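User: Here's a structure from my thesis project, written as structure tokens. My advisor, Dr. K., wants to see whether a designed sequence matches the one we expressed. Can you design one independently, without my sequence as a hint?
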């Protein structure tokens, strides 16, 4: 019997949950928030069944208990569906008696269910912990760089909100002055509440370090690969706050990923002195200095850090054993502990309910227990960038990381840094010029937007359906110039994007619109004209056609990640944009005249000179590629002809032979860009680098 129960509850109750779900699936429509109720009911029934089991009836205990579990699920389902469990609104009948009174039953809603804006009911419930009081108590009297660091990490609107609140301006006035809805105001306050820089205002807690910080240990033999130690939680939090442990490795995801239930369950576990999973640190030597990166445990330490800073409190949902016994010692007037006749400290046993209490309100005993809570720490030494990425992937190879975050760990560290500089620091994303929720930012969706925008602008022919493949391709092929050009686009978009078009920059469609704006820049029109085009598309989408087909079918396709759909959106919008600005067949120019205009613009030459010599240059290009480039190379595709022709003419201008460079360049099998102006610039840069190497040699 005991072996059977052990089997059911091993591996976090995996077999018990599986047996429950086998029966639950027959009913369907069960909220995930209610799963624990079914598991608990099954556990209760098993406890009762132990006393009722009769082995003389010829059934094994597992066979008997299987029936018990099935019945427990049915009983719980019955209880969940009973109307008397629901909230009731009593509606009175009419005074004349024609309409009788009745009870209206309100169905339960999950506190973790998200609305269209990514908010949950738990996000908007009033808490006993006053965020305003916490924020301003922390910053009271602080005039140093900590305040500026905290405020600077907020969005422009979020910063202005906090500054106005610090001036004592009422919320209603702030909302009106900044043009915010109640929902937008709450979103910005939520960002302020979960901002990791809030912990900068916590006081030193060296009394708990006991002389053993992460840097105060005995020097290690550099040949050791790793070591396992125990550290007080307060010491780890201090080291992370003071920068001795880097929690912002470029491949690490953001903190505060947990649900309310997960956060409360973890904190009550720590406060009860129950063990938690280990923390993993990778030590790296950079320019002769050692640096410790937090690899696994970011969520645990971040929530602990914010909890200690009074930034969050324990709430009822998910919390277990939240009435915590503790010992309160007695002191004399001089602060010395009183002793009894046997020499033992006088104390009184008490119970403290942690629900809704800020850490600063905890009794000293529980504060000290939290600070001294032992955490297992595994440290890897002398790690390379590749080894750190490996450890991040492997320690997060469970539910922890989503596809965006996991795929990001495979990037080149320098390219990853360029993506983060845009996704986290550029005003377009930081100040919400697009429709990006706080959840999008935390879950790595904005990193994905940046990488896929580079793909859409420069490598559309190589578009990848899986985000990890996009990260890998951008990591290998993107250049500094591409990121700088994209930054320029974001700068210019910030100049005219407002609430009228903000919602068009979704996580799905942002790369599309960024690619279209990149084409728009070559038209040399005022940036504000692009907003006019976006509004035209938004209001006319249902009736727009491209090549005789309804464009809405492509734009609203459910296959949002398919290459044909993404390319169809971009090419369709570019076609509509040309028509919107009256650029179809500009002034009756034929194809040859278009070529001449392109070449004159990019080579700084007179069109008349080009007109007379264009056939000669075209023939020279044909001879060169015939003798140098293998058949089937993408360099020979028609879509790449203009940039190749421009390179041919450029070689005559600078009196340099292209043959050796082209032979080497063709072996790379490069992907050409649809935008031939950009493609020519990249080819020219590569040629100049080659010429520099050859000259040095």
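Assistant: Designed independently from the structure alone:
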């Amino acid at each position: 019997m005991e072996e059977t129960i052990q089997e059911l509850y091993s591996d976090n109750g995996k077999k018990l949950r599986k047996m429950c779900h086998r029966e639950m699936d027959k009913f369907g429509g069960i909220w995930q928030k209610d799963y624990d109720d079914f598991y608990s009911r099954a556990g209760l029934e098993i406890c009762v069944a132990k006393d009722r089991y009769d082995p003389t009836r010829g059934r094994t205990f597992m066979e008997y208990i299987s029936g018990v579990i099935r019945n427990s699920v049915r009983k719980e389902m019955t209880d969940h569906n009973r109307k008397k469990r629901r909230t009731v609104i009593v509606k009175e009948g009419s005074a004349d008696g024609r309409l009788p009174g009745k009870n209206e039953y309100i169905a339960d809603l999950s506190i973790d269910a998200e609305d269209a804006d990514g908010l949950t009911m738990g996000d908007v419930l009033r808490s006993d912990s006053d965020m305003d009081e916490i924020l301003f108590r922390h910053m009271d009297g602080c005039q140093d760089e900590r305040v500026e660091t905290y405020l600077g990490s907020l969005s422009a609107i979020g910063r202005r909100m906090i500054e106005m609140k610090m001036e004592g301006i009422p919320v209603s006035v702030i909302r009106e002055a900044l043009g915010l809805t109640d929902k937008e105001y709450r979103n910005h306050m939520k960002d302020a509440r979960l901002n990791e820089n809030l912990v900068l205002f916590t006081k030193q807690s060296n009394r708990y370090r006991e002389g053993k910080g992460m840097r105060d240990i005995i020097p290690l033999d550099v040949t050791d690969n790793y070591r396992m130690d125990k550290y007080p939680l307060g010491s780890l939090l201090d080291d992370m706050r003071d920068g001795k442990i880097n929690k912002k490795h470029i491949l690490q995801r953001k903190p505060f990923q947990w649900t309310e239930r997960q956060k409360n369950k973890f904190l009550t576990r720590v406060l009860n002195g129950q063990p938690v999973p280990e923390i993993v640190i990778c030590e790296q030597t950079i320019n002769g200095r050692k640096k410790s990166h937090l690899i696994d445990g970011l969520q645990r330490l971040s929530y602990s850090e914010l909890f200690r800073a009074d930034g969050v409190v324990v709430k009822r949902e998910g919390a277990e054993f939240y009435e915590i016994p503790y010992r309160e010692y007695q002191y004399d007037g001089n602060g010395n502990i009183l002793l009894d006749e046997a020499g033992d400290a006088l104390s009184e046993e008490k119970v403290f309910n942690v629900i809704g209490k800020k850490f600063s309100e905890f009794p000293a005993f529980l504060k000290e227990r939290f600070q001294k809570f032992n955490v297992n720490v595994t440290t890897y030494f002398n790690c390379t960038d590749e080894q750190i990425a490996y450890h991040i992937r492997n320690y997060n190879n469970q539910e922890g990381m989503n596809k965006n975050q996991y795929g990001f760990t495979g990037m080149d560290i320098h390219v990853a840094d360029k993506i983060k500089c845009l996704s986290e620091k550029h005003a377009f994303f930081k100040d919400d010029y697009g429709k990006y929720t706080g959840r999008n930012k935390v879950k790595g969706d904005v990193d994905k937007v940046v990488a896929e925008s580079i793909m859409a602008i420069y490598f559309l022919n190589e578009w990848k359906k899986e985000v990890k493949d996009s990260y890998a391709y951008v990591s290998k092929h993107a250049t500094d110039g591409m990121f700088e050009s994209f930054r320029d686009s974001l700068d210019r978009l910030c100049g005219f994007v407002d609430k009228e078009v903000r919602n068009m920059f979704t996580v799905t469609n942002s790369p599309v619109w960024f690619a279209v704006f990149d084409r728009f820049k070559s038209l040399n029109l005022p940036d504000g004209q692009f907003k006019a085009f976006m509004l035209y598309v938004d209001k006319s989408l249902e009736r727009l056609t491209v090549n005789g087909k309804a464009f809405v079918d492509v734009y609203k396709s459910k296959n949002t990640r398919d290459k044909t759909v993404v390319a169809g959106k971009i090419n369709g919008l570019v076609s509509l944009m040309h028509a919107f600005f009256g650029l179809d067949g500009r002034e009756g120019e034929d194809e040859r005249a278009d070529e001449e205009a392109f070449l004159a613009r990019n080579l700084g030459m007179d069109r008349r000179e080009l007109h007379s010599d264009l056939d000669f240059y075209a023939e020279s290009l044909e001879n060169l590629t015939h003798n140098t480039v293998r058949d089937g190379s993408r360099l020979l595709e028609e879509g790449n002809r203009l940039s190749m022709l421009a390179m041919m003419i450029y070689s005559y201008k600078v009196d340099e032979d292209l043959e050796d460079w082209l032979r080497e360049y063709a072996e790379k099998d490069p992907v050409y860009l649809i935008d031939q102006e950009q493609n020519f610039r990249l080819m020219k840069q590569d040629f100049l680098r080659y010429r520099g190497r050859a000259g040095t040699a």
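When you compare it with your expressed construct, this may help: The longest strand covers residues 279-286.
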